[in-house]
Amino acid sequence: MAPQLDGFFKQVDDLSGHFIDRLGKAVAIPSVSSDAARRPDVVRMAHFLETELKALGAEVELRPLGKQPDNPSLDLPPVVLARYGRDTAKRTILVYGHYDVQPAEKTDGWNTEPFELTVGEDGRMLGRGSTDDKGPVLGWLNAIEAHQKAGVDFPVNLLMCFEGMEEYGSEGLDELIEAEAKNFFKDAEAVCISDNYWLGTEKPCLTYGLRGCNYYAIEVSGPGQDLHSGVFGGTAQEPMTDLSRVLATLVDTDGKIQIPGIAEQVAPVTADEASLYDNISFTMDTLHESLGSTTTIFEDKKSTLMARWRYPSLSIHGVEGAFSAPGAKTVIPAKVIGKFSIRTVPNMEIDKTNALVFQYVKDQFAKLGSKNTVKVSALHTGNWWVASPKHWNFSAAAKAVERVWGVAPDFTREGGSIPVTLTFEQATGKNVLLLPMGSSTDGAHSINEKLDKRNYIEGIKLLGAYLHYVAVEPTQ
Amino acid sequence: MAPQLDGFFKQVDDLSGHFIDRLGKAVAIPSVSSDAARRPDVVRMAHFLETELKALGAEVELRPLGKQPDNPSLDLPPVVLARYGRDTAKRTILVYGHYDVQPAEKTDGWNTEPFELTVGEDGRMLGRGSTDDKGPVLGWLNAIEAHQKAGVDFPVNLLMCFEGMEEYGSEGLDELIEAEAKNFFKDAEAVCISDNYWLGTEKPCLTYGLRGCNYYAIEVSGPGQDLHSGVFGGTAQEPMTDLSRVLATLVDTDGKIQIPGIAEQVAPVTADEASLYDNISFTMDTLHESLGSTTTIFEDKKSTLMARWRYPSLSIHGVEGAFSAPGAKTVIPAKVIGKFSIRTVPNMEIDKTNALVFQYVKDQFAKLGSKNTVKVSALHTGNWWVASPKHWNFSAAAKAVERVWGVAPDFTREGGSIPVTLTFEQATGKNVLLLPMGSSTDGAHSINEKLDKRNYIEGIKLLGAYLHYVAVEPTQ
After folding, report:
1. Entry pTM
2. Do A313 and B341 touch (CB under 8 A)?
3. Contact yes or no for A253 and B370 at CB 8 A
4. I want to staple A219 with a disulfide (CB 3.0 to 4.6 A). Which of A310, A375, A453, B245 is the partner?
5. Which chain A residues touch B244 with a CB distance below 8 Å?
6. Residue A1 — pLDDT band, cuts 50, 70, 90?
7. Would you say the ipTM is above 0.95?
8. DSSP state of B281
9. How close, in Å, is residue B25 to chain A by CA atoms?
10. Residue whose C-alpha is closest to residue B178's, from B422, B433, B454, B376
């Protein structure tokens, strides 16, 4: 039997002004994690959450994470760990969010004060952190409060993990998650992360996959120092010539990776998976608008989405050590470092991919017959993540979406990475669901970041509804 | 009959302390032309020369050049025009030098104060401008003074043109030279520029050729703004991919330019010219030392010098608009501009070379089948220069070198450009000679710039001796 949600929903509507005020209070705390001078505000934001959670009856701990690695005089902000409910008859769900934000200054081009939540007639709620990720974090608190005020029994035991360094590399978080997997998080039966976005603006989605990212550097060096092209042009083999010739062999204009063995690792598309793409709410027009151009590789939606989500891609990011300023400078750079990355997908293996890349770059360089030297290395690697969208965690969320939004969600992947997703999956061994609240136009890291009032209020209902459905969803 | 120079030479030796003091006074004026705050010092340096020249009995004019184009509130420093002698029975020689210098700060890594001439036990005279180009400029003044004090008749009428913006693009100078070609410079029968360096440290040279430089930009653009490689990798054609693929087609590792038609423009090597290379004082070891590596294209002296002086070369300088900092950034740049230049030689024509480059880049880009757009343009062009080393201006200078240094000079070209050389040749229609004073190790634009006392004092003798030989050298 479907959960009875009307009372909860009505209470969310009745409390909507209160919930918007709560978001306003949170946005007013400029918890910019990348700015050392703002660290006290980040800590203040942790205390704000602690106070609000305690007022709702949750057990709360602020966990220190030690010093910031690249600034050892600075304490990392604490992770807020909270538990609401200890009923052994109920399922236990672990949710994650972050309470830090990207930097923002009015002078960056904001139409409103970034740290004042400004609600427009059109329902756009502008403010730094509104959608990334204070709205979703408060969504869980608001869902608890609406249950209490509606007198509806909370359907699960809720474990919460809210961090304050997500916008600065989640320093210290992986270790905490691994340590707490068998402690604070040990009862968790599934994980839900609300820190991404709908594919568009009209239709909710559930995200079951993310690509990984292996980032490479090709360093070519020869001369002992930069040279003048007048004096040495024609005399010395030039590292920049060699690097250009190697970079050119990596990928073609249509994105086909030229490194042998990469394509062979990619999991074949199953019929089940292929069927997920057909009805996804997405148009090439939307893509052209995001790109600001029509220079796409594919002309159709399905090929484009598959290229973005479930096939690897290779991008050349730039060259370090060469002349990069405007104007003309007649330098022969002595050492240049080309940077490129491969977005990885199931079933690519990091080590195998690295080995293929290293060998290919060395082979291509060897073909040049150059006396210069080459080094190729991985600057960082991060694995892909994919969950089964058939898992009860997803099917419960899908039912909640249908109940709140009246439409079946799209099942999507994302081309980028949210590394904490993989960490939670690996540390807890449980299914992880990405359940977005905001829409694709929210501008999370941009000026005029916003969350639509509709997405916030219906999003609170969705988070609550998800907990009701997940509480009763049969395991398969 | 060879000129009688012993009295002049002895006087130079007797006055060497005085001449070093004069250089010290000049070095003490920080006439940095690129620094607007130093402009009064540049003007002060012009007045210093005016005063010294007038004391020697020269007629002097300080010619204003108007406002600095990129800073219209700033007056350009004047050109010092001077004439010494009006004897219609004598030849008239025009000499050029510059009295401005490169920036220098002790904190850049100088061992001494850059604007204090410091004479070491080893004869190294350290100071900004010592070799570039205050030593040579004062060389002409010193030669006049030594003639006067020795009671030796000055062998020519000397026209002098000393500018104060050479290190900042010689703003305004071309127009002045063109205007004065039929006025202040109208009597000039030959031109001598002392603003370059010996090929090595032990043997003087006379320089009869310079390469030109055409500097190109290839701009590839697609998306409306930079993109995230996670979100858009595999979706959009990437400008950086296309640019890398085009850059790779320009030149091979051994410096062979791949653009059809370039090589065909190059003048064939004559037997006369080829013979100039055999005895040149230059070793591959010296080159390896300058390079800081052994990554040369050729293994032998002659091929190397010809590649540097009389064949074109192509260097890729870098990429504007892409990620160029250390570290890893997963950006897909929306617009990238690759910069490269071609060092040009006789008989390459600028317009023809540009046309070949533009067509080739467009053809290579077209082969990619990309929807991105390409623009290729020349950021600047400058012609090559080559004079006949058989001209009486050179043969006189060669005799002067043999008299002062006891050795026949090497006849050299340079791979870089000194644009004023070509301007003087074209404006006056006269033969131009490059007669260097300093050696290859002087570090003109570097920290610890120096001029060896030997090069300065023997250089003063050389400039004077050159004027004696040029006064009597028969025209062919």
Report:
1. 0.89
2. no
3. yes
4. A375
5. 244, 247-248, 250, 316
6. low
7. no
8. S
9. 31
10. B422
